[in-house]
Amino acid sequence: MADVSAIESRVLETLATLGIPYERVECDPDYADTAAFCERYGYPPESCGNTIIVSSKKEPRQHSACVVKASTRLDVNGTVRRLMGVSRLSFASAEQTMELTGMMIGGVTVFHLPEGIPLYVDAKLMDLDYVILGSGSRSSKIKMAPRDFEKVPGATIVPDLSMEPRVS
C-alpha cells in the first residue's frame, strides 16, 4: 500500500475497528473530486457518495455531515434543515470543511468526523452493490458495501435526503 496520510491512517483504523470490509482505491489527487474521479477511473456517479458538510447560519453554529449519491442533490433546505431543527443552512466552504474535519474536499469521509456531528446517509445509497467515498485524503477512495453505514455510530439512514438533479 502506498504511503497514507495521518488522517487516512486513522480512517483505515476506524474501518477496521468497526469491522467494515473495504477496498482502498488509489487515485491521482488532481482527480479526487467526484466527477473527475468517475470520468478518469470509470466509476458511475450513481455508485459514488459525496460527504457534504452543512452548517447552520445562526450562532451557536451547528454542523452535520450528509452522504448522498453523486448523481443527486442534497435536499439542504428541506430534509436537512428539518433534521437539524434550524431555520437557515448553507454548505460549508472548502475552508470551513477543512477547519472542522481536517479533510479537503474530494477526500471528506464519514469515518473520521469530529465527535458530535450528526451523520445523515441517504437511503438511496442502501440498495447499491457498493459505494465509493472519500478516504480522508485526496489520494484514495474507499469502496464499501452501503449496508455497512449501519455500523457507523450515530449514523441515521434518511429517506429523501437527496433529490434528483434539475433538468434544464
Mean pLDDT: 92
The biggest beta sheet is recorded as: 5 strands, mixed
Number of distinct helices: 4
H/E series: HEHEEEHEHEEEEE
Anisotropy-based shape? globular
Uncertain residue segments:
none
How widely separated are the two ends?
Answer: 43 Å
The helix content is 10-25%
Strand order of the largest sheet: 5-2-3-6-9
Counting helices, strands and paired strands, the structural category is alpha+beta
Number of strands: 10
> What percent strand?
25-35%
* Gyration radius, rounded: 15 Å
Question: What does this protein structure show overall?
Answer:
With 168 residues, the chain is of the alpha+beta class. It has helices at residues 6-18, 34-41, 76-84, 94-101, and strands spanning 22-26, 49-56, 63-69, 73-74, 89-91, 119-122, 131-134, 140-144, 155-158, 162-163. The strands form three sheets. Strands 5-2-3-6-9 form a five-stranded mixed β-sheet. A three-stranded antiparallel β-sheet has the order 1-8-7, with no helix packed on it.
Summarize the structure.
The chain is α+β, with helices and mostly antiparallel strands and 168 residues long. It has four helices and ten strands; from the N terminus they run αβαβββαβαβββββ. Helix content is 23%, strand content 26%.
Please outline the helices and strands:
Elements: H1 6-18, E1 22-26, H2 34-41, E2 49-56, E3 63-69, E4 73-74, H3 76-84, E5 89-91, H4 94-101, E6 119-122, E7 131-134, E8 140-144, E9 155-158, E10 162-163
Parallel strand pairs: 3-6, 6-9
Antiparallel strand pairs: 1-8, 2-3, 2-5, 4-10, 7-8
